[in-house]
Amino acid sequence: MTQPIKDSIKAFIIENFLFGDTAYDLQDDASLIENEVIDSTGVLELVAFIEDRFDFVMADADIVPANLDSVARIAAFVAKHTQEPARNKMSA
């Protein structure tokens, strides 16, 4: 079930941080920070994308490498939060 999430995240990263370079071999479990794909400003852009695309608000405590340092980690984090009851989502 995380494949569509993973595909969406990967497309965002390729478009926004790799400037559309589809030749870059972006592995699902590769560190985005260690491989210099994103920096601290990029993390903020990524958080904004996640919140907008997947319709939930990330807590400050969730903005850590354990959740955001690879496509696989991001997809797992998003899948977990999009499957939680609606009471955990911020209402508009």
Automatic annotation (TrEMBL):
<protein>
    <submittedName>
        <fullName>Acyl carrier protein</fullName>
    </submittedName>
</protein>
<dbReference type="InterPro" id="IPR036736">
    <property type="entry name" value="ACP-like_sf"/>
</dbReference>
<dbReference type="InterPro" id="IPR009081">
    <property type="entry name" value="PP-bd_ACP"/>
</dbReference>
<feature type="domain" description="Carrier">
    <location>
        <begin position="3"/>
        <end position="82"/>
    </location>
</feature>
